[in-house]
Design brief:
Elements: H1 2-9, H2 13-33, H3 37-61, H4 64-69, H5 77-95, H6 116-126, H7 129-150
Helix pairs in contact: 1-2, 2-3
Length: 154
């Protein structure tokens, strides 16, 4: 929670990116403690790895000197506070006890669950191999295109 709070309160974007990596890794740790190994590894590889590399590229490509001297748009802080209060009230109502909260069923026993990581890997690399490879090539082309478009003329 502290890292997530520091993401939005830091003025330096590089520091915010580092705190975002910390928050994403903490979320991955929660998944690992819940024995959700697939979600753990997806969180580490996809979000803490891939998305943060994209954020760092964007930070490097933008001109931070110009953005620091621009006028900050923070006149609607009251709207942000109101939305935070509404979302907080919804969260409290969602986790409140049974009469007003969400009806939650009993969790499945851990012994009755299938090994999800092996099952997902088997299905991904047997049945969905071609769409997986096509998506990876499209993402690679998009990343190369973004770098070429952002490159300054020499």
């Amino acid at each position: 929670m502290i890292s997530a709070l520091l993401v939005v309160t830091r003025r330096n974007v590089v520091q915010s990116a580092i705190f975002l990596i910390t928050a994403l890794l903490a979320t991955a740790g929660i998944f690992l403690q819940l024995h959700a190994e697939f979600l753990f590894i997806v969180q580490v590889i996809l979000y803490a790895g891939g998305i943060m590399v994209l954020f760092v590229f964007v930070i490097m490509l933008i001109n931070l000197d110009v953005s620091i001297h621009q006028v900050q748009f923070n006149r609607q802080w009251w709207l942000g506070l109101l939305l935070a209060l509404v979302l907080g009230a919804q969260l409290i109502l969602a986790v409140a006890p049974r009469p007003i909260g969400l009806p939650l069923g009993e969790p499945a026993p851990a012994s009755a669950l299938e090994p999800s990581t092996q099952l997902v890997g088997r299905v991904l690399f047997n049945e969905y191999m071609l769409p997986f490879e096509i998506a990876s090539i499209l993402l690679l082309v998009a990343m190369i295109g973004a770098v070429v478009m952002a490159k300054k003329k020499v």
